[in-house]
Every structure is written in C-alpha cells, then in structure tokens.
C-alpha cells in the first residue's frame, strides 16, 4: 500500500485500514473480482493486529464493497452492483421479486402469494416467541445490556448469566440451561463454557465489537482532557482498555472507577472532563455531571456475521 498506517493520530487503526483498502480499489490497483490479501497477510504488511484488519474487512463487506466466500477468501465486489443495491431493503425487494415470480410459475396468483407470505411470517413470529436463549458472559454490564437491548426477533426471551455466577452455582442454573433452546457466549469464553456444560447443550460463539461511533468519539477527545471510566467490574474495564488499544488509542490516561457510593462517585466525576460509562451506569453519572462534561457510553455489539449466524440458528431450532 502506498501510505502507512499512522499511530497516535486520533484515528482508529481499523478505520485507517478501511480507507487504505478503499483507496486501493478507487485507484484501480484492486479491481472487481480481485482477491484481497488474507487478514493475516495484510496485518503483517501494515503491522497491525489481525483483529484490526478483520474489523475493517467486515465493515467493507457490510457496505457492499467486499465479499467473503467461505474457503476461498475476500474479493472486491462489482461496484455497479453495489450502487444498484444501495441498502438491505433493496436487496430484500429483489429476493421478494424472485420468490413472487417463482410463485406465479407454480400457478399461484399475486393475491395468494401475499396471503401465504403473511401466513408464513406470522408462523415464524409465533415460533420465535417461544424461543428461550441464555447469554453467558464474564461481566454483568455486557450480559445485561445484551439481554435487554439486542433483538433477534419478536418476543425472544434472553436470560443473562454471568460466568462467575455459573461457575459458583451450576446446580442453580442447570434447570434454566436445560430448558433453553440456545446458549450463546463470546469466542473468548467459548472453550470454558463448553467445558462447564459438557455435553448438555450446544453452545454458539459470537464476536462482540465496540460500536464504531463510540471509538470515533473517544478518538476525538482533545489532548489534555481528563478522562475517566465508570463501570461495575474490572473485567469490563479491561475489555474497554483492550478495545482502545486495538484501535490505537492506548496512549490515553484513563482513570477507572467501580464506585457505587454516591458521594464518592460525585467526587470522581467532578475531577473529569470526559466520562466513559458502561451500559446501565449512564444515569448515575448524569446525576453528577455538569454541562462541561462529555459522557460517552461504551457499548459492545455483535458484528454483522454473528447477527446473521444467530438468526439462522434460531430459525433452525424451530425446524427441529
């Protein structure tokens, strides 16, 4: 690549990698159908972590710039097609058109197609309402946020389980785990969860990444600002600091507090300019913040591939 990745310039590394890949495509060095370097090859060439390259590739794939083919690699998409299919709704409309055409060829009318489509959608929604999912993670902030906010379908019940609680009280959680249709954890804890549960249940591993908006806001914090992190656990704080290091933002001096006492929390907040908060603690911090404070909620969310994998797994559960 003609330009290096610049560290410590406030721009997350994966965004720089993404822009570098786009530049190679725009200047014609990588053309439609060309196979890109593997994540390992590009990470070694640019001297960044493989996770950084993976995050850049995933975003470009979600935007229709790249396409991953299982077992073959990552390729440059046809840009004309990417322009025509501007978003997921356009792509879905094309899929519906194909299904409708095939229905007509089978002898169904458009009215019958609409009726059967509505019937099938209602059936799927009813099935999803019965799905029971357990999400197992090592920090309470992430597991509670996931259970409350993430939607895989209408009415799906997600039970949060903290890994430490599971280790200490396996007998207590066993009925819940046995009744669950699907157990989810992160790649980081997959082997441990599998070992704890043995052959009781299949476990699905997903990847959780920080929201890009969160990383960008932190990258734009002016030098000299006093920055703090308010969360509930050392584990969550470690994950935040690791995520910032991966994005090339590890040079920041961030003070960490797990304080729950109101007076001590007020004192901690008063000595900061920017407060990074875990999900669930924003309101506590806002109660003591002033107009000069900038509050940034640090949220981890499943990547696009994990979301699609989960949705497919949930549908497959109810086919059995």
UniProtKB/TrEMBL annotation:
CDD domains (UniProt xref): WHTH_GntR
GO-annotated biological processes: negative regulation of DNA-templated transcription
Domain of life: Bacteria
InterPro entries per UniProt: Bact_HTH_transcr_reg, Tscrpt_reg_HTH_GntR, WH-like_DNA-bd_sf, WH_DNA-bd_sf
Keywords assigned: DNA-binding, Transcription, Transcription regulation
Family annotation (PROSITE patterns): HTH_GNTR
All copies of domain HTH gntR-type, residue ranges: 11-79
The keyword Membrane appears for this protein: no
Any GO molecular function: DNA-binding transcription factor activity
Record's protein name: HTH gntR-type domain-containing protein
Organism name: Collibacillus ludicampi
Lineage: Bacteria, Bacillati, Bacillota, Bacilli, Bacillales
